[in-house]
Amino acid sequence: MSNEHARIIPSTAATAIANPILVEVTRGDMVESRHRAAIAVVDARGSVVHAWGDIDRPVYGRSALKPLQALPLIETGAADRYGLGAAEIALACASHSGEPRHVELVSRWLAHIGSGPNDLECGSHLPFHEPSLEALILSRRKPDARYNNCSGKHTGFLSTALHLGEPTAGYIRHEHPVQQRILGTLEQLTGLTLGGAPRGIDGCGIPVIAIPLGNMAMAMARLADPDPHLPPARAAAAKRILAAMAAEPFLVAGSGRFCTRVMEVVGAKVVLKTGAEGVYAASLPTLGLGVALKVDDGAGRAAEVAMGQVLRHLNLLDADEETALAETFGPPVSNRVGRETGSIRPTGDFSF
Amino acid sequence: MSNEHARIIPSTAATAIANPILVEVTRGDMVESRHRAAIAVVDARGSVVHAWGDIDRPVYGRSALKPLQALPLIETGAADRYGLGAAEIALACASHSGEPRHVELVSRWLAHIGSGPNDLECGSHLPFHEPSLEALILSRRKPDARYNNCSGKHTGFLSTALHLGEPTAGYIRHEHPVQQRILGTLEQLTGLTLGGAPRGIDGCGIPVIAIPLGNMAMAMARLADPDPHLPPARAAAAKRILAAMAAEPFLVAGSGRFCTRVMEVVGAKVVLKTGAEGVYAASLPTLGLGVALKVDDGAGRAAEVAMGQVLRHLNLLDADEETALAETFGPPVSNRVGRETGSIRPTGDFSF
């Protein structure tokens, strides 16, 4: 894995070796579309247990990094200061669907820390959950920042800043202590110096920093297997984060969402988090492993199927769990008249 | 190009040569996601003028084939029987956004042929156009089949069946004369025997037949340059179809849609049609060429940028048109707080 990386030239020189085609979308007799991806499965010491494609190329982890970004919320003492429970910790790690329960809990949390929607700097958007979107439209109300899928994470940021007496305005900026603390956390967990790493701005306004998948997977493994790889306070925070996500799968995403469904079925064996542009990460405490994957073209449908295939082949699921997740891991494609026309599935090459 | 093709084995054997990366999505300092594609630019005799990637691999053209699928509407005499104008012909070729004008014109056309929404077999869905979607929800009405983006095409199918005295029920089925006529039309335009081609079911219920991009582009070139490559009646129908689409760009798609925008700016020089799963096709009458492209992973955002790059490099646009379409061809990516975070653009490799 990379211990450092040069600044990336933002053009696409011909990539020497293409990432493998791991997910295909069928329609009738034929494969209609194909998705290439890279996947790293790594332990807490950094040993690569399985890899597909180029796991050294830097990747924006996007929301898949939220469990790591939530560590300061606990480590600074903010979570204890405000008496935050599993629900809030899970929301701090969430890309939620904007359903009533998500919005209500974020509202209460904001009020509890003496804050409000206007202090959130993530912007707003309509709920991902279609019935909640329709209900909001029917109510003739516009969504505010609480409906943003990242609003829990941002409420966590506010909580930390308020707890430490830092000014909250501009907390999304790279230079702000909230983001600098996260940068330091990511450096320690990934084993990288990230000051020179490729950077950008995320959908919710905070910085994105590019990290190779191998290092990202190691960071997730360190959450899964924290003793003795993390200092005691960080190890305790890691356990608290994974426990909260596993206890509140609905809050981490929402109705019908892939990661919610998986965690509802398999519980704390698999704690997983999706990221935009085809990223997925997971901490596997019973195996002491971390997973990080990126679909080259950014497709979420392929990232889900790829993650499902990794989990199946790591023998993490018992027979009942496999049955319960069969359609989640290999979803049918149906048309507008309700007829099944194909499926999204791992390719024959995607084996162990 | 292929003149025949063996049945495709629906697994993904390692593809010998990967299609080139032609479109990239940037965020800050780095390329975040990449899209591979194949593109064919072909003349009416079948000579390949430009090609990227594998233009011999069969592809489901999806809605990009609608201009070809509309030929029987005219050739059978149905269009003249019912006095159909440019609006109806354009709707027959449309993947419309379900805006009020789309739905109203389809409604009138159905009534005119003595039919109604219940005779459409395409299924229904909410409008693609978000304000129209919100208005429909606020009205507390559910969308019926007229709102389906393919409803114009299907009304054309009904028109043809009624004109010829065929039973309309089951017109979406492969064995129905309406679909068999289309199959014959595609065979003649692509120069292929399609009886053994890979098949499936489209989103709207009609058959999809896999055709190599090279042959698809030749078919589009034959629409663009019909004399003497098509028999007189078919040549007249081809001209009528392209003229209708160019005259009614809004009806072919809708507000803010890529193909509508392009045709609004460049008029009849470029008649283009999008298809699901990253397909785009175009007829270029002033050059006598056809274009057909498929993004491997199915992404529409990449198909649009790829088509734009092909049009730019064929020197089809004057300076004013290029300026007017600059953002359409290289759209910025913005986040939830309205900040520009990156762009979707052709790669450095995507040159002539």
Concise summary:
The structure is a homodimer. The first copy, chain A, is α+β, with helices and mostly antiparallel strands and about 350 residues long.
Question: Could you explain the architecture of this structure?
Answer:
- Two copies of one chain form a homodimer.
- The first copy, chain A, is an alpha+beta fold.
- Chain A contains 14 helices and eleven strands.
- Chain A has helices spanning 66-69, 71-75, 78-81, 86-92, 100-112, 130-138, 151-163, 177-190, 213-224, 232-247, 249-252, 258-266, 300-313, 319-329, and strands at residues 21-27, 30-43, 48-52, 58-60, 199-201, 207-212, 271-275, 279-284, 289-295, 332-334, 340-346.
- In chain A, strands 1, 2, 3, 7, 8, 9, 10 and 11 form an eight-stranded antiparallel sheet that branches. A three-stranded antiparallel sheet of chain A has the order 4-6-5.
- In chain A, strand 8 and strand 9 (289-295) form a beta hairpin.
- In chain A, helix 5 runs parallel beside helix 7 (151-163) and helix 12 packs antiparallel against helix 14.
- Chain A is globular and about 60 Å long.
- The two termini of chain A are 20 Å apart.
- Residues 2-14 of chain A have low confidence and may be disordered.
- Chains A and B meet through strand 1, strand 2, helix 6 and strand 5 of A and strand 1, strand 2, helix 6 and strand 5 of B.
